[in-house]
Design a protein that fits this description.
The chain is α/β, with parallel strands linked by helices. It is built from 11 helices and 7 strands.
C-alpha cells in the first residue's frame, strides 16, 4: 500500500482524520498519557533493579549512621548517670537520661527508614515514603517536648536555687566529652542527611545536638556553681530550650506541610515550567501540580501540543519526552504524570460536551451509505467541533477533479444531515 495521498480539495462544513498508522480510536484530540508509579501486582516485578538498589543503599546508609549514634548514646548515657551519681551532679544524671532517651528515637529512625524504603505495591503505589515524613514530624515533636523539659527544669532551678547540688570537677570532664562526641555525631549524621535529602535523618541529627546543648548547660551550670553564680545555668538552659524548640517546630511544620501535599516553592515550579516548555512539540502547559514525599518531588501536568492534529502515538511520545526532561534535569523529581491536550481543557467546555466516537461514526456511516466505504475514519475534537478525516482506496478516483467531486459528496452528505451538521465542521479525504 502506498502512503495516503492528500488532494488539495478540502471542503469546510465537515471534518479531518488520521494517518495510516493510527487506529480508529486514537483521536488526536486529547491524548492522556499517564505514567503510573512503578509497581505491579506481583510486588517487585514492576520495580527496576536500579531503583531497588538505590533504595536499599539509602536504607543501609541511614542504618549505619544511626547505629553509630546509638552506640555513642548508650556509652554517654551510662557514663553520665554513673558520673553524676559519683560526683554529685543532678544535672549530669538528667543529661544521662536524655542521652539514653535518644536510643528510642534512633530505633524509631531505623524502623521508619526500613519501611519507608520498602518497594511500592498495589496498596501503596507511590511507595512508603510518607512513613519517613511521619517519623520526622514525630522527631520534631519530641524536640519540642525535650526543650519544654529543659526549660521547666531551668525555671525550677532559677526560683529554687536550693535544689542545686554541689558537683565536682570530674562532672565537667564528662560533660565536655559529651559535647564533643554529640557534636561530632551531629555533623556525621547531617552530612548523610544532606546527601540523601532525608528530613528524618536531619531531625535525628538535631536530636543528637540537643544532647550536646544539654551537656553545655551542665558545663555552664557546674562552672557557675563552683564560681558562686548559681543562676547562670538556669538562664543558659532557658536560651538553649528556646533554640531546641524552634528547630523542632520547623521540622514538624515542614513535615506536616508535606503530609497535606503542599506544593514546591515558586522557584522550583518556575524551573519545572521552563523545562517543560523547552521540549519540542509543547506549546503551553496548564494544571501543573507538585508535591513532595520523603525527599522526592512528584509532578502532574497537562501540556498543550503545538499541532492539534498529531497522532495519538506522537502525543504519547511528546509526553514521554516531557517526563524524561523533568526527571533528568530537575533535582528530586522522580515521578511525573503527563496529560497531552490539543487545547486547554480548562476552557474547552464545548468540546467536552461533544458525543463520543462510536455515536459520531455511526451517524457518518449512515449519511455516507450511498458513498464508497472508507478504510478508516479519524475524528479530531477541536475548538468545540469535530473534524472527520476519511481514508479511501486510491482506485476510487482517476484524477484530482474526481477527488474534488467525491470530497464534495462526502461533505454534502454531512451538511444535509440535521444531526451531524452542527457537530462536524470539516471533512477531508485521503487516498492510498
Amino acid at each position: 500500500m502506498t502512503a495516503p495521498r492528500q488532494f488539495s480539495s478540502t471542503a469546510r462544513g465537515s471534518a479531518t482524520g488520521p494517518g495510516p498508522d493510527e487506529s480508529p480510536t486514537s483521536a488526536a484530540d486529547s491524548s492522556g498519557t499517564s505514567f503510573a508509579p512503578p509497581f505491579a501486582d506481583s510486588g517487585r516485578s514492576g520495580v527496576d533493579a536500579a531503583t531497588l538498589s538505590a533504595e536499599q543503599a539509602r536504607y543501609r546508609q541511614i542504618r549505619k549512621v544511626t547505629l553509630v549514634g546509638s552506640v555513642v548514646d548508650l556509652a554517654l548515657g551510662v557514663a553520665k548517670i554513673i558520673g553524676g551519681w559519683l560526683w554529685h551532679s543532678e544535672a549530669l544524671i538528667a543529661d544521662g537520661v536524655h542521652s539514653l532517651s535518644d536510643l528510642v528515637t534512633d530505633i524509631g529512625v531505623i524502623l521508619a527508614a526500613k519501611h519507608a524504603d520498602s518497594n511500592p505495591d498495589a496498596e501503596h503505589p507511590y511507595g512508603h515514603g510518607r512513613i519517613e515524613t511521619v517519623a520526622t514530624a514525630g522527631l520534631g515533636l519530641s524536640l519540642i517536648l525535650v526543650s519544654a523539659g529543659i526549660g521547666y527544669d531551668a525555671a525550677l532551678n532559677l526560683f529554687h536555687p536550693e535544689m542545686l547540688m554541689q558537683p565536682g570537677v570530674a562532672a565537667l570532664v564528662i560533660a565536655a566529652i559529651s559535647v564533643l562526641s554529640k557534636e561530632a555525631i551531629y555533623h556525621y549524621t547531617m552530612v548523610t542527611a544532606r546527601a540523601l535529602k532525608s528530613k528524618m535523618l536531619r531531625a535525628n541529627a538535631w536530636h543528637s545536638r540537643t544532647d550536646a546543648f544539654s551537656s553545655i548547660i551542665v558545663i555552664i551550670g557546674v562552672s557557675g556553681t563552683m564560681l558562686g553564680l548559681n543562676y547562670l545555668d538556669a538562664i543558659a538552659a532557658i536560651v538553649v530550650a528556646w533554640m531546641v524548640a524552634r528547630v523542632g517546630w520547623n521540622l514538624a511544620r515542614e513535615s506536616m506541610s508535606e503530609l497535606i501535599d503542599t506544593g514546591l516553592g515558586k522557584d522550583r515550579v518556575s524551573e519545572i515550567k521552563g523545562q517543560i516548555l523547552a521540549v519540542e512539540g509543547v506549546e503551553d502547559l496548564h494544571m501543573l501540580r507538585t508535591r513532595q514525599m520523603a525527599g522526592r518531588a512528584l509532578v502532574d501536568v497537562h501540556i498543550n501540543l503545538q499541532d492539534p492534529r498529531v497522532s495519538a502515538s506522537e502525543a504519547h511520545h511528546v509526553s514521554e519526552l516531557v517526563r524524561r526532561q523533568l526527571i533528568r534535569h530537575v533535582d528530586d523529581v522522580d515521578d511525573v504524570t503527563v496529560h497531552a491536550d490539543i487545547e486547554d481543557d480548562q476552557r474547552s467546555f464545548k468540546t467536552n460536551r461533544l458525543p463520543p466516537r462510536e455515536q459520531v461514526v455511526a451517524l457518518l456511516e449512515t449519511a455516507w451509505a450511498e458513498l464508497p466505504t472508507p478504510r478508516r475514519i479519524t475524528l479530531h475534537y477541536i475548538a468545540g467541533s469535530i473534524e472527520a478525516e476519511v481514508e479511501l482506496p486510491l482506485e476510487q478516483v482517476d484524477d484530482r477533479a474526481a477527488a474534488d467531486t467525491l470530497n464534495e459528496r462526502f461533505r454534502a452528505a454531512v451538511a444535509t444531515e440535521q444531526t451531524l451538521a452542527p457537530l462536524v465542521s470539516r471533512v477531508r479525504l485521503l487516498f492510498s
